[in-house]
Amino acid sequence: MNRKEKISDWIAHAERDLNLSANVYCQIASAPKDEQSELLEHFLKEVKKNKSDESQSLPKYISSDALERLRAEFEEKGDAFFLQLRQQNPSVPEFYRKLWEYISSAPELPSTEARVFALHNMAVDSRIPYQQMGWDKLVSMKNDRFQKINFALESKGVTDKLEYILEYPLDQKTERAGLVVNLLDALPSIELKAVLLARVISFFERRAMSAIFSGLDDD
Fold first, then answer.
1. Among candidates 171, 200, 168, 170, which has minimal Cα distance to 183?
2. Residue 17, Cβ density class (10 Å: 0-12 exposed, 13-18 middle, ≥19 buried)
3. What residues form DSSP beta bridges with 14?
4. Exposure b/e, 55-82, CB count within 10 A at least 16 = b
5. Which residues, listed in sequence order, are joined to residue 130 by a DSSP beta bridge?
C-alpha cells in the first residue's frame, strides 16, 4: 500500500485516538515534501467521512493519557493559528500546505508530541474540512434594511406561505425543501432570498432551543 492507502486503512480499522494521529503524522512527515499537504488533506477529510471498526492495533507511539496535558498547553495556540489562516481565505491546497507547515515546523510546537496533538486537534475539529468561501459575495445589510425587506415579504404573503410549509406535516424532508426552493425561485433579488432563508434558519433555531428547554423540564 502507498501512504494514502495506508492512512485510509488506518482510518477504517484503527481506534480514533491520539495514537492514530501519531502514526499518521509519521507517515506524512516521512513522505516527499510535495506530497505532504495532500496527505494531510486526505487524512482530515477521510477521518470525518468514514467510521472505524477498531479492529486493527497500530504501533504505540503515544498514550491517550497525554491528551489533556497537551490540550492544556497547545490547543489555544493551534486554534489561534487556525483562525488566522482561515481568515486569509486561501485556496484549499494552500490552506493544507500552510497548515502542514505549521503542524510540522512551528516554533510553538517544540516536540513531536506537540505536533501530533496539533494534527489530532485538527482531526476532531468540526470546522474541518476547510472550504474556501466567496466572502466578497456575502449578503450583508443593516437591521433597518432587513426589516424593510422582511415587511415586503410579509405584505406579499410570502412569509405566511413559508410558515405554512415549515409547519405542514410532510413525509420527506426533500418535499419541504422543494417547496421552500420554489418560494426562493419566485423572488427576484438575492436580498429577498437571503432574508427569507434567514427566517428558515430562525425557525429551526427556535425549534432546537425549544427541544433543549423541553428536555430540561423533563429532567
1. 200
2. middle
3. 56
4. eeeeeebbeeeeeeebeeebeeebeebb
5. none
Structure confidence by residue, pLDDT tens digits, 116-132 = 999 999 999 999 999 99
CB 176 within 8 Å of CB 161: no
The DSSP symbol for 17 reads S
Helix ranges (H only) for the chain are: 3-13, 18-29, 33-49, 67-88, 92-105, 112-123, 143-155, 158-167, 173-185, 190-218
Model confidence band, residue 63 (pLDDT cutoffs 50, 70, 90): confident
User: How far from 88 is each of 132, 137, 188, CA to CA, in Å?
Assistant: 10, 16, 32
3-state secondary structure of 213: helix
SS (H, E, C) 165-201: HHHCCCCCHHHHHHHHHHHHHCCCCHHHHHHHHHHHH
Kindly report, residue by residue over 81-94, the tens digit of the pLDDT.
999 999 999 999 99
Q: What are phi and psi of 131, to 5 degrees?
A: -130, 135
For residues 216 and 219, what is the distance between their CA atoms, to the nearest angstrom? Answer: 5
Alpha-carbon gap, residue 108 to 85, rounded angstroms: 16
Are 104 and 2 in contact by the 8 Å Cβ rule? The answer is no
Q: C-alpha dihedral over 31, 36, 40, 41, to 10 degrees?
A: -130
